[in-house]
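Weekly modeling sync, notes
Attendees: S.R. (lead), two postdocs, one rotation student

Agenda item 3: backlog of single-chain predictions. S.R. asked that every request posted to the team notebook include the full sequence so nobody has to chase files. The rotation student volunteered to paste the first one in as an example of the format we agreed on. Action items at the bottom.

Example entry:
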Amino acid sequence: MEPLAAKIRPKNLEEFIGQKHLVGENAPIRIAVERKYVSSFILWGPPGVGKTTLARIYAKALNADYHELSAVSAGKDDIRKIIEGGTLFGPKILFLDEIHRFNKAQQDFLLPFVESGQLTLIGATTENPSFEVISALLSRLRVFTLNPLSEEEIITIINRTGVDMGDDTKAFITQIANGDARQALSLIDTARKLYTTVSVETITQSLQDTHLRFDKGGEEHYNTVSAFIKSMRASQPDAALYYLARMLQGGEDPKFIARRMVIFASEDIGMEDPHALVLANAVFRAVETIGMPECGINLSHAVVYLCNAPKSKASYYAYNAAMDDAKKLGNLAIPLKIRNAPTKLMKDIGYGEGYEKYTDEDLLPDKLKGKKYYKKEK
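Predicted structure, as returned to the notebook:
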């Protein structure tokens, strides 16, 4: 029997649910599809949010010679066969799932084909491409970030299945799926096949073994990482250490964990303990140089420190608020006195005039005078 996810997979953008910032009116992927614009790009986001579906919709719109590979099992020979194979129609597109699993040599092999246009590459990854994709290749790819699906979007997808179930069951599935449509559909599929009916009881029964597994590229990845971060945020070292051990035992890349801790040190602790970022960076370096299994000791050291550190998101909120204004208001005029004045003409028209190193004067653009982004939490 065809899996439910494959059965109801969208065939065009009108059927696609979510990612309005990419596929809505005047959004970049919609424009590329409508104008049949050929370009290589990366789709970065958590599992089950539409990366493969978007790639297929894009390739179909371009009437492309379309190929799919997984970087987990594919190698240079697989790519070479695609490159050397004849193209009877459209551009030659390779969708490379989990592109972050390709090592540097494999990514280097891809580079000249992408650069020359012989191959249009669509990479999909759950990992930050800035860390996992070589800079030479990344510079030739646009990165589109996909978000977890909202509860409303998951409910819409559930309704499309046509499977009979109560609202309480839909809400239960949505909670477990945590923004992952594929997981939601898998839950329905499994319960229906095992027990015929889909209810809170049959979903619960079919889940008995699911949460004991950890798959770096699968459903439990983001659940476990989320639990790890939230345990540190709640200052609970015992819970955080358990989820750390669970990830390492499951084969998670310790550098992935260390990166999340470096982010956490600034996002959740910030100016309440600036030393947290220093320690997190030091542990990241230790992970790089020592490796498993010993670096687990370094990671646990940092986990306990970050859990016990005082928390403040003030600098994180300040950055987001400033970024919102930068996006919304564009290039507001910078006050003349703090502009750079490398030439006589610039000095003559007032650039840098009246500048004092130490001043209480508001240095924001006129439209933002008095705006306070950083507000220290009490």
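Discussion: group reviewed the output briefly. Strands lie at 41-44, 65-70, 92-97, 120-125, 142-145.
Action items: rotation student to repeat for the remaining queue; S.R. to check formatting next week.
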